UniProtKB/TrEMBL annotation:
This is Dual specificity protein phosphatase. The keyword Hydrolase applies. Residues 102-167 form the Tyrosine specific protein phosphatases domain. Its EC number is 3.1.3.16, 3.1.3.48. The keyword Oxidoreductase does not apply. It comes from the Bacteria. GO terms for molecular function: protein serine/threonine phosphatase activity; protein tyrosine phosphatase activity. InterPro entries: Prot-tyrosine_phosphatase-like, Tyr_Pase_dom. PROSITE patterns: TYR_PHOSPHATASE_2 (PS50056). Keywords: Hydrolase.
Length: 207
């Protein structure tokens, strides 16, 4: 297989506007976009789910304590930040994709308490990112769309194609965006989520 050409794309891309049930927009992006707080703010993004194990961000603007010795600063962040951390290729337990799906749902549904220790309570748009916004973030966003909007995206493949287009991924790179083993893990996750949700619905039915 000849080397894949690289294509320019925005630092972040809206892949679905006004998500039913949530009323926020879902974005996908790479490290450049996820690290640009003014860009995030300009697009109404209050929450970031970073699913790259080889990439980290520090959104803490005013640490509770100044870093010293071997300790790093900590405190409230400018962005509500969730970290998954999967490998862009083989090496991930299948359950990590399942965890990622529920973590994204949690990021959309979690309600912060009215307490001073939870200063960032705004509910805004959500960005799913990885290093380049081509593989890990694409498959996780597509998995969520497939499971959350099954009428619009009846298959995972349909959701992936939608995210590829909205993310400006060129067809020449689709063979690796997302990586095939991540797509396979997402397919298994979709099956498991169906079993979990069916079991939950059964438990809620009065005897």
């Amino acid at each position: 297989m000849k080397p894949t050409a690289r294509y320019d794309r925005p630092p972040i891309s809206p892949v679905y506007e006004n998500l039913p049930g949530y009323g926020v927009d879902l974005y996908v992006g790479g490290r450049e976009g996820a690290s640009d707080v003014p860009l995030l703010r300009a697009n109404g993004i209050s929450t970031v789910l970073n699913c790259a194990v080889n990439l980290d961000f520090n959104y803490v603007a005013t640490p509770d304590e100044v870093s010293h010795d071997s300790r790093v600063g900590y405190g409230p962040a400018l962005i509500r930040y969730y970290k998954l951390g999967i490998v862009d290729g083989p090496g991930n337990p299948d359950t990590m994709m399942l965890a990622g799906y529920y973590q994204l749902r949690g990021a959309l549904e979690q309600v912060m308490p009215e307490k001073a220790s939870y200063p960032l309570r705004e509910r805004g748009n959500v960005l799913v990112n990885c290093r380049a916004g081509r593989s890990r973030s694409v498959v996780l966003a597509a998995l969520f769309l497939h499971l959350h909007l099954p009428t619009e995206f009846p298959t995972l493949a349909a959701a992936i194609d939608h995210v590829r287009v909205r993310r400006d991924l060129h067809p020449d790179e689709w063979h690796e965006t997302p990586k095939p083993m991540l797509i396979a893990a997402a397919e298994r996750t979709a099956h498991w989520v169906g079993l979990v949700e069916a079991a939950r619905a059964k438990e809620e039915i009065p005897a």
